[in-house]
């Protein structure tokens, strides 16, 4: 008889059930329990199948084998936060990394990392720096559009200059950097463009509308870029990935994290996010990374009925509104 035959499994199950306390036995013998277990197993199988199909669809049955000697990673906004962690993780694995940032690094660079100061929101400012990079290091094979800004005013209160800055850094810069570095990837049919978006790509909140719009744009940019690479340029060897982290503990949200337990939503460390992005890059695969992983359902929000979408947005906005009210009370003390 097979070790895992139905009879053996049934005998094990009966023995395990008999060793449980009576209340637990009664609960497990409820007629709905087998149906619930079946539903969970079916959902698990469906998720795994979905992941496989996503990978096959995005990668055209091919992946890139990572080779430090062949790759050159360019990270925008690499002097702090997520970008710095991406640089730290990849350089520790022996990869060559270029940092593009408007701010000078406040730390000692690893020997395989080079910094260039550049305004990535201006093609005129970026092009001569890109020429210098190509002259001194060669063509970047991985472009990580990570630089981002965010502000926290309502539509009527936020200055126009800050609204424009949000879109220029979070969206327009992606077009500028890709136009600068993608042609060489297409020519070699080898490369990877990583778009750092946000959970805000899926759900718009009050007091951060410009940020949410810019991150929804970043997701659309990623999707459209993948289509052009596959069907317009026939460059299926150039991979594309998009990353959607929840709140990340960086100076950009310090006023939220400083509130401690008054801020109810999950906050990720830069290490977790940066390392996940580095892992995606080294995998040589296209993909969509949602962090924390258990919030993958957020990507489905716009497929929900309108009333349910509104409920999700209302709950998220209520957390921010509660925090603002608490902050105002603290200021009056």
Automatic annotation (TrEMBL):
Name of the protein: Short-chain dehydrogenase/reductase 3
Subcellular location: Membrane
Superkingdom of origin organism: Eukaryota
Family matches, as InterPro entries: NAD(P)-bd_dom_sf, Sc_DH/Rdtase_CS, SDR_fam
Entry-linked Pfam families: adh_short (PF00106)
GO biological process annotation, one example: secondary metabolite biosynthetic process
GO MF annotation, one: all-trans-retinol dehydrogenase (NADP+) activity
UniProt KW keywords: Lipid metabolism, Membrane, NADP, Oxidoreductase, Transmembrane, Transmembrane helix
Gene3D superfamilies cross-referenced by the UniProt entry: NAD(P)-binding Rossmann-like Domain (3.40.50.720)
Family: Belongs to the short-chain dehydrogenases/reductases (SDR) family.
UniProt KW Transmembrane keyword: yes
Topology in the lipid bilayer: Multi-pass membrane protein
Organism from which the protein derives: Aspergillus ibericus CBS 121593
GO cellular component: membrane
Cross-referenced PANTHER family: PKSB (PTHR24322), RETINOL DEHYDROGENASE 10 (PTHR24322:SF736)
Summary of the function given for this chain in its UniProt record: Catalyzes the reduction of all-trans-retinal to all-trans-retinol in the presence of NADPH.
